[in-house]
Specification:
two-stranded antiparallel sheet; about 25% helix; single chain; globular; alpha/beta; 7 helices; Rossmann fold
Length: about 220
């Protein structure tokens, strides 16, 4: 999988290549065979009672492309919105190294708990898994050097801007009601976000809740 991403020019940095070779994707997709886990496609792993997809593991090409756009450095503090399987959080942990940290927020309690178990079992570095509304970020862990959103959002949330350091970067898929839109790269300059680039994409829509504040799982 990684060889193909490098050959295609999707993975361009040694850091992302090393992280993707280090983190075994199949460990985060226990219900899938190895061939499916390493195929370049999204994998839906949770559906509603009506069969509608609620959560999926993003296509490896998109995962790699977004990580390259995020430009994570060693020792940084990163917020992820949308934990899902925990695979992307493990990649982020490998990128920041032992002196950095990752906070990942997941709305679905069962997914957050499952991701936390797999992250611990696979020996991922410092990752804090939080159950809550990712649209609100996670103020207790702020400020963050990087924020990455792995679900389709209608806009760049005010909370994300507020919790990002000046000079920090957010990478997020901004989509319409059909899930189609663009991955937006924006840097915080002088307290405001400045968009740098956009890449076409399709993502499951972000869901939110107005319930109690997030709690660490």
């Amino acid at each position: 999988m990684v060889d193909a991403l490098v050959e295609a020019g999707v993975v361009t940095s040694g850091a992302v290549e090393q992280a993707m070779r280090h983190v075994a994707r199949h460990c985060f997709l226990p219900g899938e065979d190895v061939a499916t886990a390493y195929a370049d496609m999204a994998v839906v792993f949770k559906r509603s009672a009506q069969g509608q997809p609620l959560s999926s593991a993003s296509q490896p090409t998109m995962v790699a492309a977004m990580l390259e756009l995020l430009d994570v450095r060693r020792g940084q503090r990163v917020l992820e919105v949308g934990t899902g399987t925990g695979y992307n959080a493990a990649l982020l942990s490998a990128l920041v190294g032992p002196d950095g940290s990752v906070v990942t927020v997941e709305l679905e309690e069962d997914l957050a708990e499952g991701a936390a178990r797999v992250l611990a079992a696979t020996g991922a570095g410092p990752v804090e898994v939080v159950c809550g509304d990712g649209g609100a970020g996670h103020q207790p862990g702020a400020p963050y050097d990087r924020i990455i959103v792995t679900v389709g959002a209608p806009a760049l949330e005010v909370a994300w801007t507020a919790q990002l350091v000046d000079g920090g970067r957010v990478v997020a898929p901004i989509v319409g009601g059909d899930g189609i839109g663009s991955v937006v790269v924006a840097d915080k300059v002088g307290g405001a976000l400045e968009r740098r680039s956009e890449v076409p994409c399709g993502f499951l829509l972000m869901r939110s809740t107005a319930s109690t504040p997030p709690a660490t799982c």
